[in-house]
Amino acid sequence: MEKVMWLVLGVTVILSSLRADRSGRARNVARVALGVLFLIFGAMVNAVYLITDWDSFAAFGEMSQFAFVRDTWASLVVPNTGLFIGLLIAGEAIAGILVLAGGRLMQVGLVLLMAFHVGLLFFGWWLWLYAVPMLCALTLLLRAERRAAQTGLSGTDVDGPVTPRAGGVPLPGGRG
C-alpha cells in the first residue's frame, strides 16, 4: 500500500511542480502531496517498520552500488538502527511539517528534501528512477515558491502577503 501511495503522491508532486510557477493551486497541490508523502508515508511508515520489523532496514544499505556505503551501513547504521532510523524518521517528519507550513518554512523543507534525495542516489541505481525526477520537481517548487513570495502572491507565506507598506509588490486588484 505504501509503495502505491509513494508512486501516486510522487507523481502528483512531479506533475504539479511543472505548473507551480504559473499556478498557486498547483503549488498548493504539490505542497500538500509532498507534506503528506513525507509525514505519513515516510516518517510514520518508517516508525511502524522500526517497531514491527527492526531488521528490515539492514537490507537497504546492501543495495548500494558503492562498497563504502554498504560497509558503512553494515558497520555503523545496522548496529545502531534505532538511533539512525529514529533520526531519519525525525528528519522526514520535520521536512513534511515544514513543507505543509508553506512560505519560507516550505523553502527550508524543500532544501532539506533536496539533500535527502541526493543522499538516496548512493543507495542503488533503481533509486535514481525516483530521486532524479523528485529533485527536478523540488527545484521547480522551490523556484516557484521563491518567486511567489517575492511578488507577494504566495498565499502560503508565513509572514502574510507582501504589502506596499512593507516594501513589496502590490497585490492584484489593488488589495494590500
First-to-last CA distance: 45 Å
Report low-confidence residues grouped into runs of 5 or more.
155-171
Radius of gyration: 18 Å
How many strand segments? Answer: 0
The structural class is mainly alpha
Helix content: over 70%
Quick description:
Keywords: Membrane, Transmembrane, Transmembrane helix. The chain is mainly alpha-helical and 176 residues long.
Overall description:
Residues 153-176 are annotated as: Disordered. By secondary structure, the protein is mostly helical. The protein contains seven helices and no strands. It has one domain. The termini are far apart. Residues 155-171 have low confidence and may be disordered.
Structural topology:
Elements: H1 2-19, H2 24-52, H3 58-62, H4 67-77, H5 81-101, H6 103-120, H7 125-151
